[in-house]
């Protein structure tokens, strides 16, 4: 029998199979690492800027309740109707010139039996139609109704309505005088029929138009400017005398335009409400 194979000689272990020797573990390596590593610095957070820079809110202001002033209340209650609006002195002078201020209730309830003129400022029907308070048939319109007036008695009983009507009428006269070029004569000096000088003012021109109409005023000024020596009929002289009386009597009376409150009316040329 063949002899058993010879026992194989064990191969030497490979180098990879041999585990390397480990260095002894030191317990203090972590403290040493901590000492060698610099401390971490936190990343700064960037502030978000608002879209609109806003200043600090203002401090609240305390509201102090004030007791009503009895003197002011008494003064307001003591105002007469024509003194509550513009041109108080002018309105009073108009009433004096119309001889209505000397009547009871300051002339507000006055009716002229011959002319039909109404109230403190002696509105004739034509004037009330001109401002749109009367229609062509003599009926009171919605413009008058907005001031509480639906008939003649209501107009005579309401000082506030008469003051509103005068404001509308004066504004309307200013528009007519301005469009006709008459208002531009304010500041000029003319020679009256008696040879004296009259300096024209806006208030005096408006007052003359209130008395005799814008047309008569324009004719008077044209006569004195263009044909001062032309003969006049008795009716023309009486009318021109009336115009001159107003121009002189209102020359020193303060007057401010009544048109701002009726600006839309003035632009379209319609009646004032």
Molecular structure report:
With 273 residues, the protein is mainly alpha-helical. Among the domains are: 85-179, no CATH class; 183-249, no CATH class. 40% of the residues lie in helices and 2% in strands. It contains eleven helices and two strands. A two-stranded antiparallel sheet has the order 1-2. β1 and β2 (197-199) form a beta hairpin. The longest helix is centred in the middle third of the chain and has 21 residues, at 159-179. The chain is globular and about 125 Å long. It starts with 28 loop residues before the first helix and ends in a 5-residue tail after the last helix. Mean pLDDT is 81; it is low at 262-273.
Walk me through the topology.
Blueprint lengths: L28 H8 L33 H9 L9 H10 L27 H6 L11 H4 L6 H5 L2 H21 L9 E3 L5 E3 L2 H11 L1 H13 L7 H16 L13 H6 L5
The number of helical segments is: 11
Ends apart, CA distance between termini: 151 Å
Strand content: under 5%
Structural class: mainly alpha
Question: Roughly what is the average pLDDT, rounded to an integer?
Answer: 81
User: What integer value in Å does the Rg equal?
Assistant: 49 Å
How would a textbook summarize the main sheet? 2 strands, antiparallel
Could you give the order of strands across the largest sheet? Answer: 1-2
Q: Give the fraction of residues assigned to helices.
A: 25-40%
Low-pLDDT regions: 262-273
Order of helices and strands: HHHHHHHEEHHHH
What shape does the CA trace take?
globular
Q: How many β-strand runs?
A: 2
């Amino acid at each position: 029998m063949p002899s058993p194979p010879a026992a194989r000689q064990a191969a030497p272990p490979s180098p990879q199979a041999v585990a390397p020797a480990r260095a002894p573990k030191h317990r203090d390596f972590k403290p040493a690492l901590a000492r060698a590593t610099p401390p971490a610095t936190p990343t700064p957070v960037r502030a978000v800027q608002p879209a609109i820079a806003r200043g600090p809110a203002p401090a609240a202001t305390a509201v102090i309740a004030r007791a009503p002033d009895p003197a002011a209340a008494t003064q307001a209650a003591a105002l007469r109707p024509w003194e509550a609006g513009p041109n108080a002195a002018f309105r009073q002078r108009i009433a004096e010139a119309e001889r209505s201020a000397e009547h009871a209730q300051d002339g507000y309830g006055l009716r002229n039996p011959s002319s039909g003129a109404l109230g403190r400022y002696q509105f004739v029907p034509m004037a009330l139609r001109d401002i749109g308070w009367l229609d062509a048939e003599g009926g009171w319109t919605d413009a008058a109704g907005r001031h509480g007036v639906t008939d003649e008695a209501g107009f005579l009983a309401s000082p506030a309505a008469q003051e509103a009507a005068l404001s509308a009428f004066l504004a309307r006269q200013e528009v007519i005088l301005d469009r006709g070029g008459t208002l531009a004569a304010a500041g000029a000096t003319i020679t009256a029929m008696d040879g004296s000088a009259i300096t024209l003012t806006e208030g005096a021109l408006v007052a003359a138009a209130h008395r005799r109409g814008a047309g008569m005023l324009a004719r008077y000024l044209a006569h004195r400017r263009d044909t001062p020596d032309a003969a006049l009929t008795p009716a023309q002289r009486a009318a021109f005398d009336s115009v001159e009386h107003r121009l002189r009597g209102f020359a020193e009376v303060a007057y401010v335009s009544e048109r701002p409150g009726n600006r839309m009316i003035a632009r379209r040329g319609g009646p004032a409400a």
